[in-house]
Automatic annotation (TrEMBL), chains A, B:
This is CRISPR-associated protein Cas6 C-terminal domain-containing protein. Residues 129-261 form the CRISPR-associated protein Cas6 C-terminal domain. It holds the Pfam family Cas6_N. Residues 4-115 form the Cas6 N-terminal domain. It comes from Metallosphaera sedula (strain ATCC 51363 / DSM 5348 / JCM 9185 / NBRC 15509 / TH2). InterPro entries: Cas6_N_arch, CRISPR-assoc_Cas6_C.
Length: 284, 284
């Protein structure tokens, strides 16, 4: 199944107050039938790992994912994207001024990109940027045979590791094929963690408001930052899962724009590793 | 086997230039027979996971682990500690002025503490502070059956997770009993990661010089910062491994003072978790 990423610009026609989770603007435009009406069923579906991503709104390359509503001046160019499975009517022109509970926006379509997962970028080193907070479930790393015993345990606030990232991207990929293989995702989590070489990282926890319910603010915790690591030779093929993840996100709450990642792939060659970790044991 | 932690103050009698890995000062004093002469064999032993920790020198609660030699003014109080197995002659008075290749130091013994691992602190939440950079081997998380196939792979520069920390502390504990169980350390790494709840963390990678060899500076990468997490009920007993880790360190290069940790144990109770992660699934 191919995936398409539709990139949009939204410009408020007057000053607006955006909700903390700014993906709600695009979600409203889909659900009200103004934009991409064929996605309504997918948006409201309760399926796990569904092949859909609605990004938060961005300004100057930073996504607005916040704890409080935010004021945005009229005329500010906000960027966003929606990713979904390619279908005959999936690529449609989008242009117009639309009203939402969050204000009025002029919406322009900038590009459609179609993911070719059979042409993953060449390289053994990948930097994964967490463009919005990522929430990777710790339970991916539980042996599936123990799932019944520990149902409902674990946490979605975890420290992203190469294995958790690859296994989460694999889950997203499974959402396309609708064939779920918990043994493979468990093995990926464990083996990629054991055999990868972390090159560098920056990570910090962030708290995200998910909106109000009654007089309580629903919050969640995620991680922003990036990690650069070398994929083990045996797992270079997992780059295609990361590619899918760069369209559809990874981890929990992708439907509201969390788990957005971007990739930078390089080829460092094995020899350069010695400079990075003097104490490392020699490769056999 | 009981462990003792001997805390010392070292005051340079003149301005000194300390090496980047400041634990070398104490190591020299042991190897030259001036301090704790009974530790010489242990210091020079090539055993893995040996029950010995020589800390770096600290000023105002910060350990000096650096990329370049550092100037310290005479009269500055430097603190340090050595941990080792308790033995009849292990607790000896220490007081005097000693010469080293790094300058002359007045050394005073402040305290001996004996670890009682059968009295671990009560609580389900632990904050592990990385007092010096930690280097946790990714290979702890490899199923032991695959060890022969992947020998020499993986990395010691990893992102500390609850499972890696507990499994590394267990390895340190095994160094006391000299009974090694790679299946148990693997299981701890995997299951503690899957079932723990991270509460908060701050982490940053640091580069440490290990000294010069010819005209090349040997470097390694580690992680500073801290992580706070809730131990799963099934693994509360692992607190005793962390206790041992707080005396003997965790991970690689403990012999030169890397992997020093301190602990803060709290009891938060299960209900408070809901505030920290609004999206979390209910506990069964």
């Amino acid at each position: 199944m191919e995936i398409v990423k539709a990139s949009l610009t939204l410009i408020p026609t007057r000053d607006v107050i955006l909700p903390p989770v700014t993906s709600k603007v695009l979600k409203y435009l889909i659900m009200s039938g103004e934009l991409f009406p064929f996605l309504r069923d997918l948006v409201s579906s309760r399926d796990k790992h569904k092949p859909l991503f609605i990004s938060n709104l961005g300004v100057n390359g930073r996504r607005l994912v916040l704890m409080k509503p935010v004021h945005v001046s009229r005329g500010t160019a906000l960027d966003a994207f929606i990713s979904y499975p390619l279908r005959p009517d999936a690529i449609t022109p989008v242009n117009g001024v639309f009203n939402t509970p969050y204000g009025e926006f002029q919406v322009t379509l900038n590009s459609f990109m179609v993911l070719d997962e059979f042409q993953p970028p060449q390289g053994n080193v990948v930097r994964v940027n967490f463009v919005s907070p990522v929430l990777l479930s710790s339970m991916i790393g539980l042996p599936p045979s123990l799932n019944p015993r520990f149902r409902g345990r674990g946490s979605n606030f975890t420290i992203p590791s190469p294995g958790l990232i690859i296994a989460s991207a694999y889950k997203t990929h499974q959402g396309l094929t609708r064939r779920f293989d918990d043994v493979k995702s468990f093995k990926l989590a464990v083996l990629v963690n054991a055999l990868s070489k972390v090159i560098n990282f920056r990570m910090r926890p962030v708290t995200v408001s998910l909106g109000e319910r009654g007089d309580k603010v629903r919050k969640t915790r995620g991680v922003k930052g990036w990690i650069e690591f070398e994929l083990p030779p045996e797992f270079r093929g997992t780059m295609k899962y990361l590619m899918v993840g760069s369209y559809l996100g990874i981890g929990r709450s992708r439907g509201i724009g969390l788990g957005e990642i971007s990739l930078e792939v390089k080829d460092l060659g094995a020899s350069s590793k010695a400079d990075l970790s003097g104490e490392q044991e020699p490769r056999s």
